[in-house]
User: Fold this.
Amino acid sequence: MGVHEIKPGDVLLAVEDISLSFGAVRAISDVSFDIRKGEVRAIIGPNGAGKTSMLNCINGFYHPQQGTITYKGQKRSAMKPYEAAAQGIARTFQNVALFKGMSTLDNIMTGRNLKMKSNLLTSMIWWGKAEKEELEHRRFVEDIIDFLEIEAIRKTPVGRLPYGLQKRVELGRALAAEPELLLLDEPMAGMNLEEKEDMCRFILDVNDEFGTTICLIEHDMGVVMDISDRVMVLDYGGKIGDGVPEEVRTNQNVIDAYLGGGH
Amino acid sequence: MFYREAGQFKSSYKEDQAVFPILQDRIGIAILLLVAFIGIPLFAGDYFVGAIMTPFLILALAAVGLNILTGYAGQISLGTGAFMAVGAFSAYKLATFSIALGGAEATLPLILTILLAGVVAALVGVMFGIPSLRIKGFYLAVATLAAQFFIEWLLVKVGWFTNYSPSGVITAPPLVVLGYEFHTPAEKYLFTLTFVVVMAMAAKNLVRSHIGRGWMAIRDMDIAAEIIGFRPLQTKLTAFAVSSFFCGVAGALWAFVHLGTVEPEAFGINRSFSILFMVIIGGMGSILGAFIGAAFITLLPIFLNNVPPMIGWNIGVDMVAHLEFMIFGVLIIFFLIVEPHGLARLWTIGKEKLRTWPFPY
Ligand SMILES: Nc1ncnc2c1ncn2[C@@H]1O[C@H](COP(=O)(O)OP(=O)(O)OP(=O)(O)O)[C@@H](O)[C@H]1O
Ligand SMILES: [Mg+2]
Assistant:
C-alpha cells in the first residue's frame, strides 16, 4: 500500500492521460483528473461521453491502452476487478446489478466477502468459528440496513423489489465493503423526487459520517450542483471542463455540449 | 396448533440465523430424524429398507452434490455419474492398496476410505471444472458430458482400475467399522443414513456461509460478483470440488453399500440425467429439494407399479415404463418453465400460506 498516510484533501486517485478504445470507437481520449480524499466528485456529460467507461477503468474492469492510474500514491498496473475491490474500491452500476435470487440481507452480506475468512471446513461445521464470524458481519450489515431504512425488506428476494429500492440495496452492498473510494454510476436514475432526496441524503451521510470518498455519475444537474465538491465534464471521450460546480455551470464549452447534445 | 412465527420472537441474530428458525420446523425435523433412525430400521421390512430407502438416500446425496454445482453455483453438469464412478473406483483402489500394504487387519478404516474417495473425485471434478472459467451454459454441459464419456471409457479400458478382473465387475469389501460388520439391510441403511445426514447438514451450512453466497453471486451475475471481490475461478472450482466430493462419496456408498459390486455401468449417462432430473424436479438451489427430487424419482416407478393394480386397473409393464417417461417429461418441462425452484419452492409457498392461515390478513 501507499507509503505515506493520505489525509483528507490529498489526492486519493490520479488518472493521467488515459485513453481507451473499442476497435474504432474511442470511448476516452487523453483524460486526466484526480479525486481527493473525502470529497464528492461528480462526472457528468451527455450520453455516450465515456463516463461509465471511466469508472470501469478505475475499478479494473477495463484496461486503458494508454496512460496511468495512481491510487493511494501507487501507480497501478493492469489489475483485476477483485484486486481493486481488495484495495478498497466499491461501486454500484448504471443498470442495477444485484444478485436476483438472493434476499436483501444476503446481497448486502456479499459485500463483506473480502473480510470473511472461514474456510470450507469450518464453514461446513459452522458451529464455533464460522458462526461467530457470520454473526459479527451480520451485525455490521444490520447497521447498514438501519441506515438505509430498509429493515422491512430484509428477507425479500431482491428480484421482487421496485427499482428504487433495488438501487438502495445495491448501495448497501457497496457500503458493506467499507470502501475508501465509492463509485456510483447514476445512483438516482429512474427515481422519483422523494427517492432522489433520500438517496442524496444517504450519499451525503456516508461522505460525512464515514469520510468515504465518493465519485458519482449523474444526469440530474440540480443534484450534481447540490451535492458535489468538484465536477468533471466529459464529451465524446474528452474532458471539456473541471472545477467547482459554479465554474462548470458557467463554462462555455459545457453549455455548448449540453445544448448541442440535446439536453 | 397453528403453524406460526408469531410469538416466537427472535431476540438475537443468532436465533434468526438458525437453520430452522421456526419451532414447528424444528419439531418436524426431529420427528423425521426419529422415524429415519429408529422407526424405519425397527419396523420396515428388508425390501423397503434395502431396495428403496438406501438407494434413495445415496441418490439424494448425489443430488445434493449436483445441486451445489448447478442450483447454487449455476454451473450445469452432465458428469454426475462419472464423478460417482470416480468415487466408487477410488474407494475400491484405496481398499485394495491398503490390504496389499498391511494385510486385511491393517486396512484403512472404511470411513476414511470413503471420504478419501470423495477427495479423489473432488480433484477430478476440479480438473474438469477448469473450462468453466471460459465457457458457460450449453457449452459447459457439453464439456461435462465429454468428462462423463471419457471417464466411463477409461474405467472400462484400463484394467488397472478393476485390478484386471476379466468381467470388469468386482466385489466390494465387507463393511467393517471398528471390527463391527454392517451386514443386514437395516444396518447398511443406518450406515448410509448417518453419512447422508451429516453431509447434508454440512452442505446446508456451506450454502448459508460466505462461500455459498459466493456461489450464488457468481450464478446470478458473475461480473458484479467479480467486481465486489469474488474470484471467479476460485469460486467456481470450489463449487466443482465440493460438488464432486459429494458425488464421489455417493458413488462409493452406491458401490460398497448398495450394490456390493463396483462396475462402471452403474454410473453411466442415464445416472447423470436421472440425478439432474432430481435437482430440477426437487428444486434448484435447495438442499431439501435434492431429497424431495430423489424421493420423487425413486418412488414414482414403485407407485406406478403397485397402485394401478391395487385399484383394479391392470396396465402392462411396458405401459408403466411409458407412463414414467411421460410423467417425468411433463414435470421437467413444467418445472423448467414455470417453477425453476421445483417442489421445494411449492413446499415453501405452502408453508407461507399456512403461516397466515386461517386469517390471511
Ligand atoms: N464494452 C464496450 N464495447 C464496445 N463499446 C463500448 C463498450 N463500453 C462502452 N463502449 C462505447 O464507449 C462509449 C462510451 O460509453 P459509456 O458507457 O462510457 O458512456 P456513458 O457516458 O456512460 O453514457 P451514458 O450516459 O449513456 O451511460 C460509447 O460509444 C459506447 O458505445
Ligand atoms: Mg453510463
Residues 129-147 of chain A form the longest helix (19 residues).
